[in-house]
UniProtKB/TrEMBL annotation:
It comes from the Bacteria. It is a multi-pass membrane protein. One of its GO terms (cellular component) is plasma membrane. Residues 275-386 form the ABC3 transporter permease C-terminal domain. It comes from Mariniblastus fucicola. This is FtsX-like permease family protein. Its main location: membrane.
């Protein structure tokens, strides 16, 4: 390793040699950096799962524009929208199709006694063109009380829904209704529920008798081929002229939902604070290590200083140590984080997964934090006067 670093640096790797001269302290320093890295990885993983869970929900639908109540912060909440708004929107040039969307929450007690809360989506199965890949074929929902259940829902036992088909449905009871599970969907658990249940709009009214078919939560719209979604949205806003409605493209709705959940809701803020705390912990740990190292070798540095070596030379040594610590801490942090992601995804049903962008961002952040710590530690050496040390 010393030989490789000598070739890379073009000089004796003093930083490396100082670190390995006390292997126990080096291991402790790398463990400290790794701990901070794991903390950041876990928080970013949860934030990523938060965003991904929201995006997956929208993958159940194919639409260009969504109309919601102005108080709706996401697809799974919001006041009702009068269905007359749907007919008004259909009269706007460029709008070709419309579909009401109902959402609610259904609680079901599993045979093992656990309660599972399903985000319940009610949609007209005759409007197949609005159904996305995450839901698939909904023809089986045309029969009353047939449902599609999330096979990745938290609390569902492995293989519990594997035999649920139209010919051999799994019967369950929820909201005083006997339901027949005739197929499955694959959304996974989120932060607002344990999984998803997809039903027809008629079955939705049976599950939620207080709801009215003329007042969906959202209205999905399709626009004609070649139409600009932004221009059509402006036309709809002008035609409906309602301050109580939020009218935007489906892409804008997704981004607004993600932004609200990650920057306004307490859960998103907590994960964001966790990332900041992890970075601060890493900076403090590396600063303590480098500062101690500078203090321990201050006489040697002062000797070099008296011999004419400039500040840039000492800076390169400190940065060398910082980068070595960053790499030595990042690799175990990445491996441990992969294991934690696997366990968390299995236990929670959340879409937690490592990606290259996140790994690269944490690596760059780790190197940057270590370099910042090195710059702070350098102040002690910059102010050192050889005459005061001998």
């Amino acid at each position: 390793m010393t030989r490789i670093l000598s070739r890379l640096l073009g000089r004796l790797p003093l930083g490396w040699l100082q670190l390995v001269s006390n292997r126990l302290r080096f291991a402790a320093a790398a463990a400290g950096v790794a701990f901070a890295g794991i903390l950041v990885f876990v928080q970013l993983g949860m934030m990523g799962a938060f965003s991904e869970a929201i995006r997956v929900t929208y993958s159940g639908f194919e639409a260009d524009v969504m109309i919601s109540a102005s108080d709706a912060t996401g697809i799974m909440d919001g006041s009702n929208v009068a269905s007359r708004r749907m007919y008004q929107a259909l009269g706007v040039p460029g709008v070709t199709e419309a579909c009401p969307l109902f959402v609610g929450m259904t609680k079901w007690q599993n045979d093992n006694g656990t309660n599972i809360e399903f985000n319940t989506i009610g949609i007209d199965p005759a409007r197949q063109s609005f159904i996305g890949t995450a839901i698939g074929n909904v023809n089986s929902l045309k029969l009353a009380n047939n449902v599609l259940l999330d096979r990745r829902a938290r609390g569902m036992e492995s293989g519990q829904l594997s035999q649920a088909t139209l010919d051999s449905p799994l019967v369950l009871e929820a909201n005083n209704q006997q339901l027949a599970v005739v197929g499955t969907v694959s959304f996974g658990g989120g932060f607002s529920g344990d999984g998803f249940m997809v039903v027809s709009d008629q079955t939705f009214m049976r599950l939620f008798p207080a709801r009215f078919s003329g007042a969906p939560n959202h209205i999905l719209l399709k626009i004609g081929k070649g139409e600009d979604p932004g221009i059509v949205v402006d036309r709809i806003r002008t035609a409906l002229n309602a301050q109580s409605l939020e009218i935007r493209t489906i892409e804008a709705a997704i981004e607004q939902d993600v932004q609200y959940q990650t920057t306004v809701r307490p859960v998103g803020l907590i994960f964001g604070m966790g990332v900041i705390i992890g970075i601060i912990v890493g900076i403090v740990i590396v600063y303590q290590i480098l500062s101690t190292d500078v203090a321990d070798h201050l006489r040697e540095y002062a000797t070099f200083k008296a011999m004419g070596y400039d500040q840039r030379y000492f800076r390169s040594i400190i940065f060398e140590e910082a980068i070595i610590l960053a790499i030595a801490g990042f690799i175990p942090a990445l491996l441990v984080a992969l294991g934690i992601y696997t366990v968390m995804a299995e236990a929670t049903g959340l879409p937690i997964a490592m990606n290259l962008a996140r790994a690269a961002a944490v690596f760059v952040g780790t190197v940057g934090s270590c370099a910042l710590s090195g710059m702070i530690a350098m102040r002690k050496l910059a102010n050192a006067d050889p005459a005061d040390l001998f």
